[in-house]
Specification:
By secondary structure, the protein is mainly α. The protein is 70% helix and 0% strand. The termini are far apart.
Length: 188
């Protein structure tokens, strides 16, 4: 009985330490279809691992540990009914992008400044109530046009996506654009 009490207390303290000090998942890293509750569920499972990535730990080992932890939580029924597919996608996106931000902080700062200017009108529109998803689609077009001014989604983004003729753009630009638009939507 004493062993069980000590084990239970240790588990409770471990869980409270996990959620109390765990890093938050940047909302701009989550898949577009992820809900806030799914993101919070993932944070509760992998927050401490995300902390490690914020502090410089590499992606490979943290990715494997996060996937194992999510899989175990799903099997144990500790995910509020959410499945491995969405929770793993939220986790992997967050780990990969946070690692990229850690490795290229100056680049992300430059993108932030560049996209604040490029997307200024859209940011104001979202602050004034424009639909975030529509604004994000327009932001993608503006980003592509900043690389290739002749880009036209009505012509270049037709048919099966493997035939789309879109300019090569670093995915970090879309992440930063999502952050700027989400901040505008949330009044940050």
């Amino acid at each position: 009985m004493k062993k069980f009490s000590i084990l239970a207390i240790t588990a409770i303290l471990s869980l409270s330490a996990l959620t109390a000090n765990a890093a938050l998942i940047p909302r701009e890293t989550a898949p577009m279809n992820a809900t806030e509750e799914q993101i919070k569920t993932t944070e509760n499972i992998i927050g401490d691992i995300l902390d490690e990535v914020y502090n410089g730990t590499g992606y490979g080992m943290t990715s494997a540990r996060a996937n194992a932890r999510i899989r175990n939580a799903v099997i144990a029924g500790q995910t509020n009914g959410y499945g491995y597919g969405i929770l793993s996608a939220i986790s992997q996106n967050a780990l990969r992008i946070v690692r990229d931000m850690y490795l290229r902080p100056d680049y992300y700062n430059q993108l932030n400044e560049k996209l604040k200017v490029l997307l200024a009108d859209l940011i104001v529109d979202v602050q004034n109530g424009k639909d975030y998803y529509m604004a994000y689609e327009e932001a993608q077009t503006l980003i592509y046009k900043s690389v290739n001014p002749s880009y036209n989604p009505a012509v270049d983004k037709v048919g099966d996506f493997c035939y789309w003729n879109i300019p090569a753009v670093d995915a970090a630009e879309f992440t930063v654009a999502r952050k700027l638009l989400l901040d505008a939507k949330n009044g940050v």
